[in-house]
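Please, structure for the following, as tokens.
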Amino acid sequence: MNTPPSPPGAERTDGSSVRIGALVPLTRPGWVGAGRHLLAGLELAVREVNNAGGIVGRPLELVVRDTAADPQRAAAAVEELARLGVAALAGEYHSVVARAAATRADALGLPFLCSSAVLDALTEQPTQWVARLAPAQSRGWQIYADFLLSAGHSRIAIAADSSVYWASGTRILRDYLAPRGGTVIELDMRALAPAAVRDELAGNRATALLLLVGHPEPAVSIVKSVRRDQRLAEIMIGAPAGQPEPTEWATLLGDDGAAIPFLRYLPERLSPLGARVETALRERLAEAPSFVAFEGYDTITVLADVLRSHGTDRVRTAESWPHVAVEGTRGQIQFSRTPGISVWQWAGTPIQVVDRDPAEPDRFRIRHTS
């Protein structure tokens, strides 16, 4: 499948630049808001690297490809970017798409620093070519399960769409909650309309409903339906995958979108670097940056450090993952091998459970931390 051209100025043909391929969901059905924030972080870091002298005097440039949440499109983009001679790949938000990209990058011998996707099994077998900044889904979603238990929820309904990512999340929650007295009730959204979820919830005595579904739909319709049913006034709605973070959520749902806890990968307090980057991202985005924007910035920060230290040879870049020690916006970034995870993993990613404050929906409350 053909990928759209890079934005003007993203590619150079004179060979003077060091190029990084950037995979970003910029059009539907991709999560466009997340893609916009991811790209803003990538671009801000590239600008700062170049203002500081680039990569040993050579400018760093992004070659951007829109994945549109399509795994086949992402795999084709990886092949194209490899032919174009990029030194490494960066980015991607959607886990299933990142898995397709990582599989092709592994096969082609192209280093890929995945910014934001969390699916544990990004590749079928352990690989030296891929590293990741976001926490593995099993770690983040177990922390979310701890939050549910600490908040007194032991009967938890899950409204789930069909995908590898949602199935993985359901399995993690079920396996973690069951030995701790929790019960998971699965609602198949392939068979249920959003309005039908209300009757299922009323009948099974669940105290929490988790949205393992797409954004904005059917997530927004499910929230509206549940919030308007007096039988469900006490039920907590949760969204571990982060649907309530973008401003679009608040715009579409207003007060109904508050008090829906989700996972966010930020520390309780930003470092001076993080605070400076937050200010620059806010100016660039004209809104508060999500954690995804910080992930994009940190991705380029790590790759620039590796390229300065080890050159642009792809093998040497891949060999450098275990030696990375870079100060990012959310802490010092180092990669290690984690049991059950096939890629080099930043194990120290900060993890929070937050929600939008009902009294001030533009403000986030921290409900639980790792």
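The chain is about 40% helix and 20% strand. Residues 271 and 329 are 7 Å apart (CA to CA).
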